[in-house]
Design goal:
The complex is a heterodimer. Chain A is built from 10 helices and no strands. By secondary structure, chain A is mostly helical. In chain A, helix 1 crosses helix 2, helix 1 packs across helix 10 and helix 9 packs antiparallel against helix 10. In chain B, strand 8 and strand 9 form a beta hairpin. Classes of the chains: A mainly alpha, B alpha/beta.
Chain lengths: 267, 244
């Protein structure tokens, strides 16, 4: 296989961040919630990202907050993907009236900005709880995954090996999940990386707006809104938190780009 | 060959309705009043240019299309199919072994050891080395893929096989090998074929009888030798002249 610098760089960057986040679940340099007299320290070797208005170590808080963000993004993508594959596989394979209705419904939903839609859902289920953020974002993500899956299924459905499986009398569920699903990976994997990034950004936006994660939980988006209030005293807080978001999105984006290029090469 | 029937196609007409926003609904027939039989043990050729309805006919026989008139009578269990393009006939996500075991998983209540045995036996029949089992379809040549496709069809123990242009995507030397294999398998496994092709030379090499199709109608049918030596229909003469 040819070298794929996108994939390599993306895996390195995302892997490094993932290692930091996983480490953060077990160990942080300081207690992320412990306050001290050392307020507004600029970044140094002792405090890699400085301290905030309560003297808390920002690097430790970022490690913990990135963990929350990661969990939310992964769970969001999982809900969106599961629902999207279910709807997309059925509509893409069977077509017909249900396909038309569901896809037009999807069109209507995609016409709204996804954040706005998530806002509506979260106001219905009750704001301020992490799992409600996951639920609302996950639901909002279903139509886009359904669309991608549907396209892939509609294309693969025409392949001879699917016709052969039909003639063989393979049960429909087995055709959908065992015969077709693995062949949609080249379409779905990049979509998953894009969905992950959108979820990170959506969570950050929602928490920034104050309808997402609330204390004592912390996420990168929540920390960013917190950092805004002290931007003149401690600009490193906002910069470092923002930088971690950017690096995470950039790394996963590179993986997605790499996967797309790889699927272009094969065949 | 005995005269037992495998398949009887009786006055079949197939078509579709055009639909358009500003058009009148119109019936466009693809097959007109098609009648023929497939006899036990024979290789029946079906020739005609592209668009003449050959593939529609095979889809109708397989039950993927419902004829608008006439009937199709099967005297054996459902036929199996070998497609033209060996590149899209095998699932690229799986190994050859998985692909070959799939019909056995679906059909029989065989345990893993019995599936293995049957797959290896079939592999030998289609003259493929055992090493192929671990390969992905993308690692095989066109001829090898077509052998795997034939094996997948035969593992379901059909009596009747429809081959839609099975060799037209292959080199001439590979073509000859696959044709020879199909002939051998016919006598070993007591099969009958409907062999669809646009290549009259290939049809001459393998078929016992031939149907000539033009614009959805059968314009001539008979023994290959007779039809090739004394074509009755003008269209058959044109096809033969073009194939010289």
């Amino acid at each position: 296989m040819k070298k794929n610098p996108y994939l390599t760089a993306g895996c390195l960057l995302a892997g490094l961040l993932a290692a930091m986040i996983v480490l953060g679940f077990f160990w942080t340099p300081y207690d992320p919630t412990a306050m001290s007299a050392e307020k507004f320290l600029s970044p140094s070797l002792r405090h890699l990202m400085g301290t905030d208005n309560f003297g808390r170590d920002i690097f430790s808080r970022v490690m913990e907050g990135a963990g929350t963000t990661l969990l939310i993004a992964v769970a969001t993508v999982a809900i969106g993907l599961a629902g999207g594959i279910l709807i997309g596989a059925l509509t893409g394979y069977f077509g017909g009236l249900a396909d038309e209705i569901l896809m037009r419904l999807g069109d209507v939903l995609t016409a709204f900005p996804s954040i706005l839609l998530a806002l509506v859902i979260i106001s219905l289920v009750g704001p301020g709880k992490t799992y409600n953020v996951v639920l609302s974002l996950g639901l909002v993500f279903i139509p886009s995954f359904a669309r991608v899956t549907r396209t892939a299924y509609a294309a693969v459905r025409e392949a001879n090996y699917v016709k052969i499986a039909q003639l063989m009398g393979v049960p429909k569920a087995r055709i959908l999940l065992v015969h077709i699903l693995p062949n949609t990976a080249s379409t779905l994997l990049p979509a998953i990386t894009i969905g992950f990034n959108n979820a990170v950004l959506a969570e950050a936006s929602m928490s920034y707006l104050g309808i997402g994660v609330t204390p004592p939980d912390a996420s990168l988006g929540y920390m960013l809104s917190e950092a805004q209030g002290m931007f003149t005293r401690a600009p490193w807080y906002a910069l470092c938190t923002g930088l971690v978001i950017v690096l995470l999105v950039f790394g996963v984006g590179l993986i997605g780009e790499g996967l797309q290029r790889r699927s272009g090469e094969v065949i | 060959m005995s005269g037992d029937l495998i398949l009887s196609v009786q006055q079949v007409t197939c078509g579709y309705h055009t639909r358009g926003l500003f058009q009148k609904k119109e019936y466009r027939p693809i097959l007109h009043d098609v009648t023929f039989d497939v006899r036990h043990g024979e290789i029946l050729g079906l020739v005609g240019e592209s668009g003449s309805g050959k593939t529609t006919l095979s889809r109708a026989i397989l039950g993927m299309l419902r004829p608008d008139a006439g009937q199709i009578v099967h005297y054996t269990k459902r036929p199996q199919m070998v497609f033209q393009d060996p590149y899209s006939s095998l699932n690229p996500a799986y190994s050859v072994e998985w692909i070959l075991e799939e019909p056995l998983r679906i059909y029989g209540k065989y345990d893993a050891a019995e599936r293995r045995r049957r797959v290896r036996e079939m592999l030998e029949r289609v003259e493929l080395p055992v090493e192929c089992l671990d390969a992905r379809p993308s690692e095989l040549s066109g001829g090898q893929r077509q052998r795997v496709s034939i094996a997948v069809a035969l593992l379901q123990r059909p009596r009747f096989l429809i081959a839609d242009e099975p060799v037209s995507a292959l080199d001439v030397t590979i073509q000859a090998q696959i044709l020879k294999l199909l002939k051998t398998l016919r006598s070993e496994l007591d099969l009958s074929y409907l062999f669809i092709s646009h290549d009259l030379n290939v049809v001459y090499q393998i078929c016992d009888r031939v149907l000539v199709m033009k614009q959805g109608r059968i314009v001539e049918q008979g023994d290959v030798e007779a039809v090739y030596a004394h074509p009755q229909a003008e269209y058959t003469r044109q096809l033969l002249a073009a194939a010289e």
